[in-house]
Each structure stands twice: as structure tokens, then as C-alpha cells.
Amino acid sequence: MTLYPADDRFAEAVRAQLGDDVLRPVSERYLEEPRQRFVGQGGLLALPKTVEEVSALVRLAADACVPVVPYGGGTGLVGGQVAPDGPTPLIISLDRMSAIRAIYPTENILVAEAGAILADVQAAAEDAERLFPLSLAAQGSCRIGGNLATNAGGVNVLRYGNARDLCLGLEVVLPSGDIWHGLSRLRKDNTGYDLRNLMIGSEGTLGIITAAALKLFPQPKGVGTAMLEVASPEAAIDLLSLARDQVGEAISTFELIHRQGLQFLTEVLPDIRQPFAKPPEWSVLIELGLSAGQDPSDMLEAIYVAAEERGLVGDAVIAQSEAQRAELWAVREQIPEANRLVGSVSSHDISVPISRIPEFIQRGARVVAKQGPFRVNCFGHLGDGNLHYNVFPPAGHDKAEFDAQRSAVKRAVHDLVHEFEGSVSAEHGVGRLKTDDLEDYGDPVRLQAMRAIKMALDPKGIMNPGAVLKN
Amino acid sequence: MTLYPADDRFAEAVRAQLGDDVLRPVSERYLEEPRQRFVGQGGLLALPKTVEEVSALVRLAADACVPVVPYGGGTGLVGGQVAPDGPTPLIISLDRMSAIRAIYPTENILVAEAGAILADVQAAAEDAERLFPLSLAAQGSCRIGGNLATNAGGVNVLRYGNARDLCLGLEVVLPSGDIWHGLSRLRKDNTGYDLRNLMIGSEGTLGIITAAALKLFPQPKGVGTAMLEVASPEAAIDLLSLARDQVGEAISTFELIHRQGLQFLTEVLPDIRQPFAKPPEWSVLIELGLSAGQDPSDMLEAIYVAAEERGLVGDAVIAQSEAQRAELWAVREQIPEANRLVGSVSSHDISVPISRIPEFIQRGARVVAKQGPFRVNCFGHLGDGNLHYNVFPPAGHDKAEFDAQRSAVKRAVHDLVHEFEGSVSAEHGVGRLKTDDLEDYGDPVRLQAMRAIKMALDPKGIMNPGAVLKN
């Protein structure tokens, strides 16, 4: 259906219904995204304070066939939050809906508005002596509504799942403007289709999440953190199996790190303290969250000893204090920043079946080498089968020199992922960056079903047009 | 859209395309359901052997506008598996698609066809030294496709989640006959709408699940089981919190048992060995699944001592052998059979927010008493907020005497559940039994979205018509 811009007349209609306070001039930050692949073309910015205001805004947009772009923390990496073309949109920011509405410690549930910053949700849980485990680099600025809209992942997925697994209920404004009051605190409810999970991960194309009932967990009684040199990616996978045998689901983090990442840190972030005198080719960051009566260091040492007997591990650093733990985490957490400073030719957020990761890494090296003398930094959430597979220019060169090769590199890596029955967007989503990939690699029957669902719930196509599904 | 019966002409068309082997006379078991509320009216029975055959069958049905009833193990309790009215359907049984297609121990994944019996899936996981945790009374005859179609629950939901949480990927024949090849082994894949969870719990109204990639887990190194007398439902909830503080997510089972259930066992199943000399008003069955280095008896005793100090628990039996463990489980598992032998006036599979359960139980007793001198057996998955709240005739009377009151009792209980923001189908689904409840209690915006999705994916309305959504 034809869409129309959010023009002055539309702004007048908004003011007439909602007053002057809800609209704001669009500042730059609503038109940018972290990787600068997409630049928003302006639009009308609304900052509603209640779900009823969101509903009224969407209803006005639906009546006038004006596109709507929902805006959370703006930290998404695939351009889902900015509309670079088409009629200028109504941008609905959730900034002013940031309350923690309620917390139910006995039920291990917290109800937050969509605009609540992830770190604030974590802190509210901690105040109640509970854990909200979603944890990712952008947690100081991303907002929980965006985390849910993109089904965010992060470093604790291995144990606690991604954003989808941490949500019990949603309040959503549908493309009609209707409000779905689905803030359920029920752990079990089998009364009909799973609208909640349909909304989660739909990246603002099926509705606007305005609040969520989130699952909390007991805080671990003891936390153990270590960085271990591993002989190979195979050895890392074997180490994970071995650790699982010993401590079950207590492994909250299992991150693979390649030497390239440590070398980048040395180059561009030399203040980061490196765990090993000589950077090993492969290492893993492991963290255990344990219950009462289990000593973290003992558990990690037992894992190390068993792994050492099998020749899986070399050097190891087991954190002996909170400060040492923070140092180990800084290594993992600053690798993306080092990558950004070095500047990649092409970055890939991929997953493949876990047992095929070693083969994928070998094949990937050959595939990339064919494209040119690139450096690869491959790291990430090994326990989830999710690697950040980033390709960099040779030392001494700038990424700009390889702009012309970017799409060929990306295509080569993504083709390989597809051959391995993997995903070209493991945790970042499709946004506007990967709509072509979805067309190229997605199951056609699934795509057809997705289009049918989009048409059923958003017949005018106003919700975040151009994201997930191509126009 | 008008539907037509699966008549002789349609059977001919099936035989012409798929040969004589796929069709069978409809035996009684395909027309019955355990509670005998619905009786199937016959139809054409197909037993396909491959997903391609399922696809061809559905395509023929779609072309001829013939209703399709997917059939798993037939153990569902809400009549989703039988069509009592409307044009006689094509019944597609998955009996002959029961293979375990593959198992990936390193990845903790098993791929099973929809017709695999749940107990066989559990056994295949065990053979690979893994755990498939879905566990429920019907596991010897229910089939995994039906478990997924109904998002089955059971006794391990507290720790491992329901069927939805145990599935990574699906192969599904959509109402068009198209095959969605979604048997993903990926733990993370954010490429578009969550079709998997939309299919799970849709009770055969959006497609036929033909295979699933299922999550496996490490087998616990030690299992501890105990039955504890608790002072009240409040005390049971406090005990759960206390146990969680001590052992985190290791609690796999936390089941509430009321004296009424133990008395029913004494009456109708006297061979079941009772744990307590005098049945306590309230007790709980708790089971821990522990990792290496944790002694189950020590952990349970520590929980008991702490709970005893706070006055939460009275008598307790901690299983000291596998035989004792089986005895404790038999008590819990045979309560539904005892209920069946006694004969309920009305049974309710409900959930409410966990912290409100004590209040619900008090209010429920008053609400039922107003309806008559009934006995209530309230038991079940307390940790999930899911109670089986069953109402029985007074001692010495038969349920048939109260047939006229059944709907009033049900309505009174369900009204109360609704007032408590609960669900009238926590784990059994909607089927044909609870479509009216969905209309009465469901969020109208959500219902509208469900209808739009149904229309989008099944425009002719052939898939399990009358289930979940009223015709």
C-alpha cells in the first residue's frame, strides 16, 4: 500500500490529539547507527510517555498510512532503527517509557517498560537479590524493548538463553494501534498461538513492544572465571563437553578468543592487561556460576586438570579476585572496540552447528585467503555456535582501500555459512543490512509464511518498512 | 470457506497419487480421546511414511477443501485430536514416521520424526548419555509431534521448560502442502519471524509438524528425591525459594500434593505405598539433579534443616535408594489415575502467578463450596504456578449425579482463575474443549491477531478446524 510522509499536516494531527509535548525536533542520534552504514533521512520524532500515547500515535499513522520506525537505544548493528529512504517516518522513541513497573521476587519476575536501559534492569534485579542475565557490550545504552525486538544474545546465552528465553509476557501496540495486554506473569499458559515469540525478534515490523514481564534468576553463590589456552577449536569444544560433564549447566560463559584479537588489543588498546605473556593462537574465557557449597576455584582447577590430562589445554589463568576477574573480562569485552579501531573490511555475525565449527574455521581461512591477504579475527560465543567472524585489511593498510572488495568477501563468507547450514545473523538480526541475505539464503517457504504474517498483522505496511522483509 | 468431506472420490484421488498403502480403515482409537468428551465421526485415515507423503496429502486436501486432523499419540486431554462434527476429515496419523533421524552428542541435539514415542526419544538420549527432560504421565504412548503441537509440560518444566523450550528446529507441512525445512541445529539464529514457536502450541491448526530438532542436556550426576510435609501452600512457596537459594536451578521437580490425593490413593489404589503414616494436609515432592561433587542426600538434608528452622516443614522422607525414589514418584504419578477412578465432576488445568497461589486455594475452596458439598483435589506443578484443580463428588456419590452442575462448577473456577490473571489451560492446550473459554477470557486483541494469522497461513481453514479457534 502507498505510504505517505510524516509531514506538517500529520504533525498537526498528532498535536491536536496528544498535545505539544509528545513531538520533538529530530536530533542526529535518532538518524545514526553505530556502523554508519545507514543514515536516517529525518522524520517526525515522538516521545510518548504511556502505552495509550503509543497506541494513539500508531493509530494516527495507520489512518494516514505514515511509516513508523520504533526506536530503542539505537545500538542495533543492522540498521533496523533508521529509515534511509521512503517517505519520512514517524519515529517513536521509547526513551520516556523507562520505568521498572514492578518486581515480584517470590515469582522471579520483573516488569519493565520498553525504554528501560538494560543495565538499569540488571541493577533493579540485583537490588532484589536476583539476576537478570541478559548481558552484552551495549548494556549501558541499549533498551530492553530493543533487546526483545531484536532477540538480543550476548555472553550468557549458553546458560540462560537469549532475550526470547528471558521473557514471560509483553505489552505491545499492534500496527492497528490496538494494545495487546499480554504482560503475563504465568510460567505456563497454553491458550493459543505464541504471539509473544512472534513479536520478539520481529524488529519492530509487527508492532511496538511497550513493556515486558522478564524472568529473574537466583544469583549464583560463587562465580569462577578463567582464561585457558586451548590447543585448537576442536579442543575448545571438547573442553566445553568436559566442563559440562563436571558442572552441568553452571557454565554461563564460554567464549573463544583468537590470537588476532589479542594482537589487536596490543596494537590499539595497549592499556588492557593481557592474560598470557605470549598470546596463544586459541584461548577461551570460561565463567561458572555456582550454587552453595561449591568452590569456584576448586571446580575450575578440577576442569583444568582433567582437560590437561587429555591434552586440551596449555597455559591458564584462574581469577583469584574480583579485580582479576574484571581484567579477564576486559580482554573479551574490548575486542569489539579493538576491531572497530583497526577497522574491518567486513564483519559477520554467524552461527553454524557447534560440531562443525573447527571445519568451518579451516575452510573460512581458505575462502578468505582467496579474496586477498586479509587478517581474520574469529571470536565469540563458542558454546552457542555463534562466531563473530571479522575480516581485516593486512597490517599497515586501511579498510577504505578494500571497499570495493567488501561485498565479495561478505558473499564468500556467507556462502560458506550457508553451505554449513548456518545462519548469517546469529544474534544481531536482519534489520536493513541483511534483507538481501534473507532472500538469498532463507527457506522460501518460511519467507512466504513470514510475508503472509506481515500482511495479516500490518496490511498497510506501516511498521518499520524495509526492515526484515524487503519492500 | 466451505469444506467438503473426505469421501470416496477424495480417497480415490489419494490412492491415484500415493498408492494403496497410505490409506487405512479408521479404527476406533483414532476416534476416541481419553476423557470421552468428544467422539470422532469417522473419516479417511492416512498413515504417511515420509514428509513428502504428508505434503502430498495436505496438498490434495487443500485442493479439495477437505478438513485435515493431524493425529499423534491420541493422549491429548482437550479433544484436539478428534473432529466430532463438520465434514468428515482426512485423519493424518504420524504413526509410521517414528524414526530417530540423527543424534549429535557434541551438540546435545537429537532429531526425531513427529511420530516417535516420547519414551523412545528419552531412551535414545539416554543411550547417548544425555537427558531429554520432557516427562509426563503419557510418555509411553504420546508422540513427540503431538507434544510439540500442544507445547506439552510435565514434571520437569521448572528446570528445563516445556516442549517449546526443548526444540531448536522443525520440519512442518504448512496448510498449502508446502514443506518448511526448518530442522535447524543452531542455538542462535536471528533471521526473521519465529515460525517455530508459532507452530509449537498451535495444536495442528497451522500445519503438521513432521520432525523436530530437540535439545538434549547433560545427565545429572546425582539425583535426590524427597517428600516433605509442608505447613501450608505459603510454606511450600517459601520452601521453594529457600531451596533455590541453596541449589540454584538444580531443582527439577517441585510438586504440591494435597491430602485429598493421598486419601484417594488409599481408597482406590491401596497398593501404592504412602510415604507418611498419617497423610499431611499439604506435602511436596522435590527432586534435585546435581552436578559432580554434590551429594544429593546432604543437599536435601541441608534444605530440610534450614526449612525446619523456619517452621516450613514437618515430617520428611528422603529417598535412600532408587526403589524408594520410585515409591515417592509413584505417589505423585498415580494421583491422576486415582482421580480418574474416583471420577471428577470437573477438572481444571490452571495457572496463576505463583505468589498468589495460597490466596487462590483459599478463595477456590469457598467458590467450590458455594456450588455444593464437593471435594477438591488440588495438586501439581507448584514451581510453575500450574495446579490441577479437580472437583469431586462427596464421598459415597458418583460424578454422574452432578452432571448438571459441571458447567457451573467449571465456570466458577475459571472465573476465579481469570480474576487472578491466570490461565484456564496451563499445559493441556485449548483443543475443542476450551474454545469457549478462549472467547470468554482471552485478550480480544490477541484473539484478533490469532484469527488473522490463521487466515493468513490457512486461508481455506482446512487444518484441524474447530480446534483452538471456533469456526
TrEMBL record, chains A, B:
Cofactor: FAD
GO biological process: respiratory electron transport chain
GO molecular function list: catalytic activity; FAD binding
Any Pfam family hit: FAD_binding_4
Sequence ranges assigned to domain FAD-binding PCMH-type in this UniProt record: 38-219
Keywords, sorted A to Z: FAD, Flavoprotein
SUPFAM superfamilies associated with the record: FAD-binding/transporter-associated domain-like (SSF56176), FAD-linked oxidases, C-terminal domain (SSF55103)
Family in the record: Belongs to the FAD-binding oxidoreductase/transferase type 4 family.
Protein name: FAD/FMN-containing dehydrogenase
Organism: Ruegeria conchae
Lineage: Bacteria, Pseudomonadati, Pseudomonadota, Alphaproteobacteria, Rhodobacterales
